[in-house]
Design a protein that fits this description.
alpha/beta; TIM Barrel; 8-stranded parallel barrel; 7-stranded mixed β-sheet; 29% strand; disordered N terminus
């Protein structure tokens, strides 16, 4: 009788255990998914979705994998759908997790056909290896499927019950009419006409959700910092995203992906001496442009040896010629004319690219031995005059800083002053002024407000960037009939700045 009584007492608990067995089994076998689910509760747009694999036109298998799905604030924008790279390997997709586990290499066969980019037929006729950022969660690495159908031959949809169904595109016809599909096309706006304004978007990891922000008044072009030359062989890192471009287009922006050399002089020198490496790099950039639907490319090669001027010009010529076959616009960032920036053949480059953005800031740079304005009005006007001697006004964008520097001055025991600086956003400058109790004063000769304060034995000086200094610089663009302005960088400004930008265009 004793065992029977025990069984009777345990029966309700046993029933509950059996009913919830699938759930318990799932969390025991795959504990990291539970951790991911906790993360999901912190973001209303983030969720965990089980994955099923389409193995035939009429056959689907559940998998032990889950996807990390990030919905955009605007539900019409494609979601970012991250899947474990192991799933792709199991589906025979030629993808490799790189040694540092922060990126993948994906091989795309016959890229000119797969990506609809005829220029790749010559540059990469058989295959191309592309880099993609890995998203990590509890030691698992995930690949973003959004916008990648043409590159990997896979499609996906969300089936009833919020299950992600992934399969070869040829097998997915049964889901063609599913309401929640993978792609939503937003047409690109027409090419900008002068005057127009560009803002650089500095991307460190994930791309921001532009659909949650709304359009910035007066801004026509976004240039996300997505691509960096990794080595002298032409490999490039990639932080691009199809959802970002879709959101940008929905907000009326063109998107010009920024391409950087990493500001490494020796790497760049070797790269510019290697035509094969340049072909690989150009092929990579055109492949990414096709994948993400870019409208243009912004070339930001800095810290280049003066002796490489002709090689840099020829590289830009080749890059632009190939990209123009895809309808891409090209811009290039250059510094103001100085002896140490003779690597930029400004007259030749201005004939090759559509626009030149002159970086009229860092009058007093980060390691300057003397404190001062980032871009005083007289200095900017003088820099523009020098640049306009080589670049037509209708092709020139004037660089404008959205940051400023806080300068810290201290004296050693001998009375010698040393200086160091910290870059600040506009909001941080306001906080400094409020907490220090300093009063700002207008400097007519500089075209900016200025304030200083003392803390301990140190003096702090700040030349303020705000809507006032911005309006004065923008008036220079109008005075010289420039193509427009380019702002470094998005996120450092206060919202009212964009009202001043819009007013300058009226």
């Amino acid at each position: 009788m004793k065992p029977k009584i025990k069984f009777k007492l345990m029966r309700p608990f046993l029933a509950i255990f059996i009913m919830t067995l699938p759930m318990w089994t799932f969390w025991i076998l795959f504990p990291s998914f539970a951790a991911a689910d906790v993360a999901a509760t912190e973001d209303p747009y983030f969720r965990i979705v089980p994955i099923a694999r389409q193995i035939a036109p009429d056959a689907t298998n559940r998998t032990p994998h889950v996807a990390l799905v990030r919905q955009q604030a605007n539900p019409e924008i494609p979601e970012d759908v991250w899947v474990p790279w192991e799933l792709l390997s199991q589906m025979n997709i030629p993808i490799k997790l790189n040694a540092e586990k922060t990126s993948f290499t994906l091989r795309v066969g016959k890229p000119s056909e797969a990506l609809g980019a005829p220029a790749l037929a010559k540059l990469a006729p058989n295959a191309i290896d592309l880099e993609f950022r890995a998203k990590s969660d509890d030691n698992r690495q995930y690949f973003n499927l959004t916008g990648m159908e043409s590159a990997i031959g896979l499609s996906y949809v969300f089936a009833p019950g919020d299950i992600l169904v992934v399969g070869k595109t040829a097998f997915m016809s049964a889901y063609a009419q599913t309401p929640k599909t993978t792609q939503v096309a937003f047409p690109a706006p027409p090419p900008p006409t002068s005057p127009f304004n560009l803002v650089w978007d500095h991307v460190m990891a994930d791309n921001s959700d532009l659909s949650a922000e709304g359009a910035l008044p007066g801004i026509n072009v976004l240039s996300p910092t997505w691509f960096v030359l990794l080595d002298e062989t032409g490999r490039a890192s990639n932080r691009g995203g199809a959802s970002y471009v879709a959101s940008a287009h929905a907000n009326g922006y063109s998107v010009w992906g920024l391409v950087s050399n990493g500001f490494n002089k020796e790497r760049t020198k070797k790269f510019l001496a290697n035509a094969k490496a340049q072909d690989l790099f150009i092929a990579n950039m055109l492949a990414y442009a096709a994948l993400y639907g870019l409208d243009g490319i912004n070339i930001d090669f800095e810290n280049v040896d003066n002796d490489d001027a002709s090689r840099l010009t020829e590289f830009v010529r080749r890059f632009t010629a190939a990209g123009k076959t895809m309808g891409l616009l090209f811009s290039m960032d250059i510094t103001i004319p100085t002896n140490w920036s003779r690597c930029f053949d400004r007259p030749a480059l201005s004939k090759i690219v559509d626009y030149i953005a002159v970086m009229t800031y860092d009058e007093h740079w980060r390691t300057s031995p003397k404190a001062g304005s980032t871009a005083s009005l007289p200095w900017v006007e003088n820099a523009l005059a020098k640049t306009l001697a080589d670049v037509p006004a209708e092709k020139l964008l004037m660089g404008i800083p959205l940051y400023t520097r806080e300068w810290e001055e201290s004296k050693d025991k001998n009375g010698k002053t040393s200086v160091k600086s910290l870059a600040l956003s506009m909001a941080s400058v306001d906080e400094r002024m409020e907490t220090s109790g300093a009063d700002k004063k207008w400097l007519d000769t500089v075209g900016q407000y200025y304030f200083q304060y003392i803390s301990g034995d140190r003096t702090y000086r700040i030349w303020v960037e705000d809507e006032n200094s911005m309006s004065l610089r923008l008036s220079l663009a109008k005075k010289h009939s420039l193509a427009g302005a380019a702002f470094w960088r998005k996120g450092f400004e206060k919202p009212e700045i964009w009202d001043a930008v819009k007013a300058s265009m009226e």
